[in-house]
Amino acid sequence: MSTFHSKSAKSFLKDEKYSSWHDKTFWSVRQKRDAMAEKLDEWEQLREKASRIKLHTLSHLDKYLEEFSGNAEKNGVKVHWAADAAEFNEIVFGILSSHGVKKLVKSKSMLTEECEMNPYLEARGIEVVETDLGERIIQLKGQKPSHIVMPAIHLNHDDVGELFERKGISDQPGNHDPSYLTYMARLSLRGEFLSADAGMTGANFGIAATGDIVVCTNEGNADMSTSLPKLQISAIGLEKIIPDYASLAVFQRMLCRAGTGQPSTTYTSHFRKARCEDGEMHIILVDNGRSDWLADPAHREILKCIRCGSCMNTCPVYRRSGGYSYSYFIPGPIGINLGMLRSARQHSGNLSACTLCRSCETVCPVKIGLAEQIYSWRQSLSGLGTFNRSKKLMSDAMSLVFNHQGLYDAATGAESVMNIVPRDWMPFGLRFPRKPFHKLVKEDDK
Amino acid sequence: MTSKERILNKCAKAADGAFAMPELDDIAAVEYPDPLKQFCATSEAVGGKVVELADNQDINELVRSLFPEARRIASNLTEISIADTNPDLVENACELNGTDLGIIRGEFGVAENGCIWIPQTMKQRAVCFISENLVILLPRQNIVNNMHEAYKRISFNDYGYGTFISGPSKTADIAQVLVMGAQAARSVTVILI
Predict the structure, then answer these.
(1) Which of A350, A366, A346 lies closest to A318, judged by CA?
(2) Residues B89-103 pLDDT 10s
(3) Structural domains of chain A sorted by starting position, each given as residue range(s) with its CATH number in brackets
(4) Percentage helix, strand, coil for chain B under 3-state DSSP, each rounded to 5
(5) What is the ipTM of this complex?
(6) Whole-angstrom Cα distance, residue B179 to residue B182?
(7) I want to staple A335 with a disulfide (CB 3.0 to 4.6 A). Which of A83, A229, A330, A345 is the partner?
(8) Do B183 and A243 touch (CB under 8 A)?
(9) Closest CA to B115 of A6, A349, A270, A231
């Protein structure tokens, strides 16, 4: 009866102290988000506008993509188009190898995770250094992110302290104070920035009207990655294009308030051009399934997502099961949906990780019907052949009984044959009532 | 067919043009009775520091008094005489590593979130990030209420780069404990001029 998710969640919950900390931590982030939203009378109006801007952009995506790439090229940026992850990785490697790059520093990008770019480049002799602190920690640990905004949330300060000791980043064994560890990571990463040959960023937004790539960080690592090396590569999913600055104002106001409960990220950086005359800036527009999802009216709205992470923070299932309980690399309500779009067969187990409480829909800044989407995926499970066989057998039997009055009466009558069936043979030791419900109601009426 | 053509064709087929762009000018965005006061409060809340330059006070003396121990100071601003490094004259951006204090100019501040618009106005923009401490000179009359007003106002020059900065570099990536000074400036002081 168990899915990958429910089994993994069970082991997550074995550490009661940690799982309770995880739950409370994310609930406090949700509360910070609420405090931010409550400060703005226009919050709900912003959500509605944000949703409509995304719907509009998606329904005119070809035009906005052309406008964006045209303007970026006018700015002197080299624009590339990648149909899938393989082409994306080839393009990145092509740019890096033609410049003789040995070390690449990069800021956080879920898109490069999606395309599994790091192992591809590393296998070809390029050192890739993640510079977001959380990403760096899990890179050193050889792990994947467990949350899209707080990637190392599954580790505590002792885990990080021991890791830094092993890697020679910290020089005071036993000092696991987060301020000390952050400072030591700063020193270590500073060396990486200074010796890198190229810098890479993801993108929170691409502005069609101007060709800007907009990157939001708290650490300033995207700016550090791109203001020292002369070569910049920015990767952006097709759905991240928005029309103009008036639209950006709406999203900039919501992204961080919704995600971490801050009024803004520390840095909201606009990249339009190579940073110097002998430098280069490349933008890679990545499809990797997005144009197929756009063509699917039932699930198109998932492309509205701005990756704030608020649906994870609020989700009672995510909070109590952790990011690694999901089979797709993006967890929580949005990850369940993205996993189904990526491969329904591979990721349908995640569909069980939802109570349909719709808390995610209440907080989503772009109003994606996340739970409704999960519900609709569940309806199509039998077509995938990934449903649970014993559950299917039960529900088929129930449907047979409930749809045939005679069978139902026989099963529920005073002399019910069903109650002669040994208890062990019935799922959950199910027993049938002595009288069917409709007869009980009639008796009550008398 | 190139990937570009294939992607655009697929999107053209799928994008049905069904949704019109919503009106955005009717957003009832937050405004403050005293935007400067709000800007100062928000800046402090995001970990920044705000100092006012008094009438007749020398900016260099003020900066010196705030950072008495700063040894290497980088700035290309003409009114800053205490700088020993000019980011316009630095050939390799990495040479700016070890800067104790960077002094730059901000165009305007945003009351709702403490953001300050910093278009690149120096050859090596690294000075805005690599410096241990950052001072931003901001004309006190240049404060807007919110990001809608801000995005109507931003402009770019030939450098083709600009950023909104709101407080010092920060992270909570280790056990959700907030620490100032992740990869970029460990402190940000706004001097209202």
Answers:
(1) A350
(2) 999 999 999 999 999
(3) 4-14+309-384 (no CATH), 40-155+197-291 (3.40.50.10420), 389-445 (no CATH)
(4) 25, 20, 55
(5) 0.98
(6) 7
(7) A330
(8) no
(9) A270
